[in-house]
Amino acid sequence: MSVHNNYKNMTSYKIKSSLIHRQGLYAAYNIKRSSKIIEYKGKKITKHKAETDLKYDDPKLIYLFDLNKKYDLDGDFKYNTARLINHSCDPNCEIIDNGKSKLWVYSIKNIRKNEELTYDYGFSFDKDYKTYPCNCGSDNCVGYIIKQSSRWRLKKIS
Ligand SMILES: C[S@@+](CC[C@H](N)C(=O)[O-])C[C@H]1O[C@@H](n2cnc3c(N)ncnc32)[C@H](O)[C@@H]1O
Ligand SMILES: [Zn+2]
User: Fold this and answer.
1) Is residue 98 over pLDDT 70?
2) Ligand 1 proximity of 20 Cβ (cutoff 6 Å)
3) More confident: 24 or 98
4) Rounded distance from Cα 124 to ligand 2 centre (Å)
5) How many domains, the chain?
6) Do the domain assignments include residue 6?
7) Mean predicted confidence (pLDDT) in 92-119
8) What is the 3-state secondary structure of 100-137?
9) Which residues constitute the domain of residue 118?
10) What are 49-66's pLDDT values in tens digits?
11) Of 50, 90, 95, 126, which residue has the fewest beta carbons closer than 10 angstroms?
12) Is 127 inside a domain boundary?
């Protein structure tokens, strides 16, 4: 992917209260598609820990990023500003794993100043899907936080 860096000395995001949920990140200026926006930082933990530790038991606030079959990234740290990015069914960003234990948020569309930054949380479709209602407000919102590749399943049962 070719990467654009718009204004070298200025962060391209700002924190604001969000209509989707509590706080979110917003574009500080017009951002071109394929721009590197912010690193998603955290602590690597095993999936076993994520499934058994009570710290990760709150379905209302999920800050876990699925790294691979064995590990998740716990992003619930103040230093991880990217944790504030909300989910959308029509996202304008995605998180890319550079393979060297670094995750970066990139724009996948041209984003206008003051637009909220969002990505697809990638939740799979399972029996608990109703625990995660989606409030993204986009035209194609399916009502629940479910990854794009699984949304057809929801349409089938409703
Ligand atoms: C990583 S936090 C996102 C930041 C959060 N807005 C905050 O202020 O802490 C993830 C949580 O935000 C909420 N959230 C994110 N996207 C959402 C959406 N599209 N609809 C409803 N809630 C959402 C859910 O409660 C989710 O567990
Ligand atoms: Zn939605």
Assistant:
1) yes
2) yes
3) 24
4) 14
5) 1
6) no
7) 93
8) CCCEEEEECCCECCCCECEECCCCCCCCCHHHCECCCC
9) 13-157
10) 998 988 888 766 778 888
11) 126
12) yes
Give dist(CA 125, CA 147) in Å, integer.
7
Counting ligand 1 atoms within 8 A of each CB, the residue from 87, 121, 147, 151 with the most, and so the one to mutate, is: 87
Nearest atom, ligand 1, residue 76 CA: 1
Tokens 């710290």 found at: 55
β-bridge partners, 111: 31
Q: Which numbered ligand comes closest to the C-alpha of 42?
A: 1
Is the model's pLDDT at 2 over the cut of 80?
Answer: no
Decide if 3 is inside a domain.
Answer: no
The CATH number of whichever domain residue 136 belongs to comes to 2.170.270.10
Task: For residue 56, tell me if it sits in a domain.
Answer: yes
Structure tokens at 114: 């003051």
> Which atom of ligand 1 is nearest to 87's Cα?
16
Q: pTM to 2 decimals?
A: 0.91
Protein residue whose Cα sits closest to atom 26 of ligand 1? 61
d(C-alpha 144, C-alpha 125), whole Å: 10
pLDDT of residue 153: 86
Which residues make beta-bridge pairs with 103? 40, 97
- Interval between CA 29 and ligand 1 midpoint (Å): 23
Answer whether 61 contacts ligand 1 (Cβ < 6 A).
yes
